[in-house]
Design brief:
About 60% of the residues lie in helices and about 0% in strands. The chain is mainly alpha-helical. The protein has one domain: 434 Repressor (Amino-terminal Domain) (Orthogonal Bundle). Helix 2 packs antiparallel against helix 4 and helix 4 packs across helix 5. The radius of gyration is 17 Å and the shape is globular.
């Protein structure tokens, strides 16, 4: 039996970091309930890299962690395929976006730390102002 520990995936690290950020707001038990796991032990196993995130759990994880589900889906796909394969499958930018729109979207995702930012009237006004000057 091979006892060599495998490298944790980016999604495992992302989930662990996001849970740390939510400490005091949402418990690991709460997250497990939202995702649909009977036990928070499954969350621990994912964070440690002992098990992969099932693709059918992405929506629940996105809701529980308050993050963009498409970003989480791409991270989950990396558990099975290389980043280059993901880019080949989905395109280097976002489906339905021009190259420049995809670049802008990626900047927004990075600036929001891959959460799901709310488009408030103030944020919308600022975005519109950026493109009218």
């Amino acid at each position: 039996m091979n006892n060599v520990l495998h490298e944790r995936s980016r999604i495992a690290e992302f989930i662990e970091n996001r849970i740390d950020e939510l400490r005091g707001v949402r418990s690991q038990r709460d997250i497990a309930d939202i995702v649909g796991y009977k036990s928070p032990n499954m969350i621990t196993m994912i964070k440690q890299g002992d098990t992969k995130v099932a693709l059918d759990r992405i929506t629940g994880f996105a809701k529980a962690l308050d993050v963009d589900q498409s970003y989480l889906f791409r991270l989950a796909m990396e558990q099975f395929y290389s980043k280059n394969t993901i880019a080949d499958l989905f395109g280097a930018t976002q489906i339905g976006c021009s190259k420049n729109e995809g670049i802008i979207l990626n900047v927004i995702r990075e600036a929001s730390d891959n959460t799901d930012p709310v488009l408030t009237p103030k944020v919308e006004e600022k975005l519109r102002h950026l493109f009218t000057d």
